[in-house]
Amino acid sequence: MEKFGADVTLTASGGGKFEITVDGRLAYSKKAEGRFPTEAELDALA
Q1: Per the structure, how many domains does the chain have?
Q2: What is the reported pLDDT for 11?
Q3: How wide is the angle at C-alpha 39 spanned by C-alphas 33 and 43, nearest 5°?
Q4: Half-sphere exposure of residue 33: CA atoms within 13 angstroms, side-chain side
Q5: β-bridge mates for residue 26, sequence order
Q6: Strands (E), the chain
Q7: pLDDT class of 1 with cuts at 50, 70, 90
């Protein structure tokens, strides 16, 4: 939030789901990738 000035909302879920959406678009899915994003991948989402 501080690095990008983003408005972040955390939504509770189950099953290890971790997704990042940007402007309503799915930008990263842990389920699809099988891992958490790297810092470089997070930087590229901004």
Answers
A1: 1
A2: 84
A3: 100
A4: 14
A5: 21
A6: 19-22, 25-29
A7: low
Residues 6+ apart with CB under 8 A from 25: none
CA distance 15 to 24: 22
Q: Which amino acid would we find at residue 43?
A: D
| CA distance linking residue 36 with residue 30, whole number of Å | 5
- Block residue for tokens 């099988």: 34
The parent domain of residue 31 ranges over: 1-46
Please tell me the pTM assigned to this model: 0.72
Instruction: Give the integer Cα–Cα distance in Å for 45 and 32.
Output: 16
* Torsion (CA) 31, 39, 42, 14 in degrees, nearest 10: 30
